[in-house]
Design goal:
Largest interface: A-B, 22 and 23 residues
Order of helices and strands of chain B: EEEEEEEEEEE
Oligomer: heterodimer
Number of helices of chain A: 0
Distance between the termini of chain B: 37 Å
Shape of chain B: globular
Strand content of chain B: over 45%
Helix content of chain A: under 10%
Helix content of chain B: under 10%
Number of strands of chain A: 11
Number of helices of chain B: 0
Structural class of chain B: mainly beta
Chain lengths: 111, 113
């Protein structure tokens, strides 16, 4: 059972555009929602994270929007750059400290 | 500050064999978590160790086991390898646990033939 559903599977965006990746979860015991960025041949790297007591968090060009009632959260990458081309994973951590990951989104930013 | 290191980086094993993977966390980090990454199943949590104790375990069979040493280095063992165990195995370290900032290593690519 996929506890965290991520879409789209792949995304192509023009340089300077906005990239939007969405995730939905089912388990209300989740209390920490990070996004990871992974380049080929590397391990994932934490990009930005949010806890359910806030609806939005912004760090530079990256923003997480969180909708607790809909059990959805999304990553927005503003002014997307070719260097942002990578695979992005959303994740959710439950109160038992177990992580569940989305299936990943392959982002390609075209110059 | 050195990052998380994993050895070996690549490994080829035969079905039925066993394998041991190693992870050295960032200095001062006491939590080490292990993950399996495959194209089909994505990233899946295996287990987490903190101060030599397994605190959490994912839904993997008992063939997957691990341990953590007093210096926080961790090993993961897979016995009786199956073709489906072919994957990238990642470890991540953090100061307090998965709810804090995790730093991933580059992974060990295991191929089972």
């Amino acid at each position: 059972q996929q506890q965290v559903k991520q879409s789209p599977q792949s995304l192509i965006v023009q340089k300077g555009g906005i990239s939007i990746i969405n995730c939905a979860y089912e388990n209300t015991a989740f209390d920490y929602f990070p996004w990871y960025q992974q380049f080929p041949g590397k391990g994932p790297a934490l990009l930005i994270a949010i806890r359910p007591d806030v609806s939005e968090k912004k760090e530079g060009r990256f923003t997480i929007s969180f909708n607790k009632s809909a059990k959805q959260f999304s990553l927005h990458i503003m002014d997307s750059q070719p260097g942002d081309s990578a695979t992005y994973f959303c994740a959710a951590l439950n109160t038992g400290n177990q992580f569940y990951f989305g299936t990943g989104t392959s982002l390609t930013v075209i110059p | 500050k050195a990052g998380v290191t994993q050895t070996p980086r690549y490994l080829i094993k035969t079905r039925g064999q066993q394998v041991t993977l190693s992870c050295s966390p960032i200095s001062g980090h006491r939590s080490v978590s292990w993950y399996q990454q495959t194209p089909g199943q994505g990233l899946q949590f295996l287990f987490e160790y903190f101060s030599e104790t397994q605190r959490n375990k994912g839904n993997f069979p008992g063939r997957f086991s691990g341990r953590q040493f007093s210096n926080s280095r961790s090993e993961m063992n897979v016995s009786t390898l199956e073709l489906g165990d072919s994957a990238l195995y990642l470890c991540a370290s953090s100061l307090t646990g998965p709810g804090g900032e995790q730093y991933f290593g580059p992974g060990t690519r295991l191929t089972v033939t």
